[in-house]
Amino acid sequence: MFQTPLWDDFLRRLRASTGSAMTLLAIRPKGQSDVAELVAGDGPAGAARRLLVGGQMREGRGYALEELIEHAAAADHEALADAPIRALRAVRVTEPSGVDGWLACAGGSALGSSTGALILALAPHLRIALRSFAALERERFRSAVTGEAFNRLNIGWLTLDTQGRIVEASENAGLMFQWGSLLRRGRYDRLVPADPAVDRQLAGFLKQVAAGRSVRPLAINLSRDPWLDMLVAPLQGDTISGHRSASVIVYVSGDRRSQADRCEQLVDMFGLLPSEARLAWLLAQATSIRDAAATLGLSEETARNYSKKIYAKTGARGHAELVRVIMTSVLALS
């Protein structure tokens, strides 16, 4: 199941051991009409697949060509009549989650009872293989969806050993190294924060993990403009995938755009004045209106007047909703 094409060696070996002109494995996911067709050898694979899939074969029972052709459509009769296939042995299996598989050997001369017996003997193994394949495909899908969500939220991850060396990193975490000098990959693949104080915090955290102490995740703000945060947490559980040297996982969340860029986007999106956009962006970071006013050099009364105009233009009914409106807007994707 890890080959390209899938199960290529298996189909070729089955063909060679049975003397078949063609071996065919068809797979149909649960609830779908499309069928994946894997073939080794020469023959009318399309007609054979339609014969198998459309033949209402019982699960786990062996079939010969004569039994299947009785229920075949007229078009398949004609295709098979013109083809060099005169014999076929097949079985259908269904794994527990509902994935169907059809395995067949076809040839221009008779296929003996030994071929039929081999096909039947392979059925339970094929069922197990399809179960593993279905589980792997589900995990691939979940991983792809999770990865896409992380990418859209500008969140990357990397794992470190107790010496601070990078064991593995997601693709977008690697891209974050290119945003600036706040984090970089140093000598011997060590993760190096630009701020010496942050570097000492990270080293102290790794030392505690290496000593087997129970530590809570460490959250560090690396920069406000552009925004970059880091969460360091002990890596839970061991694996057998070759990454046992990793001891902590680091989540990096950031925004390559500056505060000025974001304010310009708010002006475009909601028709805010530049002064209103600067206040709106600070409020969207869950900053209190008093602290935002102080940051911008405004009186609190002026900031409150601005906030009323911001709420009216964005449709927000308060501070909490303004955070949601801005942080779930397309700014999160840009």
From TrEMBL:
Coiled coil: none annotated. GO terms for molecular function: DNA binding. Transmembrane segments: none annotated. It comes from the Bacteria. Residues 269-326 form the HTH luxR-type domain. Gene3D superfamilies: Winged helix-like DNA-binding domain superfamily/Winged helix DNA-binding domain. GO terms for biological process: regulation of DNA-templated transcription. InterPro entries: Sig_transdc_resp-reg_C-effctor (IPR016032), Tscrpt_reg_LuxR_C (IPR000792), WH-like_DNA-bd_sf (IPR036388). This is Helix-turn-helix transcriptional regulator. It comes from Sphingomonas ursincola. The lineage of its organism: Bacteria, Pseudomonadati, Pseudomonadota, Alphaproteobacteria, Sphingomonadales.
